[in-house]
Amino acid sequence: MSDDSTRPIVIKRIKKGGGGHHGGAWKIAYADFVTAMMAFFLLMWLLGS
Q1: Which residues span the domain enclosing 44?
Q2: The dihedral of CA 26, 30, 33, 39: what is its sign?
């Protein structure tokens, strides 16, 4: 009774992804740049008044 047609079929699923944490460094750099620009223009505004 060891028929080959009754054996279970095992399908391995390969997890794709894992790159969700990569590529986010530009957001930190952009936030630093925007903060520095805000401080610069605030300083220019205070010195101009």
Answers
A1: 23-49
A2: negative
Q: Is residue 32 part of a domain?
A: yes
> The tokens of 28 are what?
């930190």
Helices (H), the chain: 25-48
What does the CA dihedral 22, 23, 29, 34 come to, rounded to 10 degrees?
-120
pLDDT attached to residue 18: 63
Q: What is the count of structural domains for the chain?
A: 1
Residue in the structure block whose two tokens are 């009774």: 1
**Separation CA 44–CA 49 (nearest Å):** 9
pTM over 0.70: no
